[in-house]
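Appendix C reproduces, verbatim, an entry submitted by the partner laboratory led by Prof. M.T., so that reviewers can inspect both the input and the predicted structure.
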Amino acid sequence: MTGQVERVKSFYPFLLVFLGGGIGATCWYAVDLIPFGSSFPYGTLLVNVLGSLCLGLVFSLTKADASNPLPVLFFGVGVFGGFTTFSGYALHSIKLLEQSQHIGLLLNIGASNVLAIAACALGVLIGRSLA
C-alpha cells in the first residue's frame, strides 16, 4: 500500500501542472477571441504582460515557503505557463514581418519584452510587499 501512495504522490505535481496549464490555455484562448480591431497582436501582448505580472507575484509570494513547490507548479508552470505564449508572440512577429509592417514588428518586439519584464518586476515588488 505504501508503494501505491508514493506513486500517487509522485504523480501529483504533474497533475497540478496539467490542470493549471488547461486553465491558462483556456484563458489565453478567451483573450484571443477579443476583437481588438487591429492587425497588431494586442491579445498576445496582453497575455504575456499580464502573465508576467502574475508570475512575478506568485514567485515572490511563494518564495518564503520553499518547502512547498506545489503552488509554483500549479500557478507558475501550469496556469501562467499555459496562459503566456512566447510561440504566439514569435508567430505574430513573423506575420507582421511578412506583411511588411516593420513599425508594428518593432513595436511588438519592444513592447512585449519591455512591458513583460516590467510587469514581472512589478509582480515581484507587489508580492514582496504582501509577504
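Residues 53 and 122 are 6 Å apart (CA to CA). Additional entries are available on request from the coordinating office.
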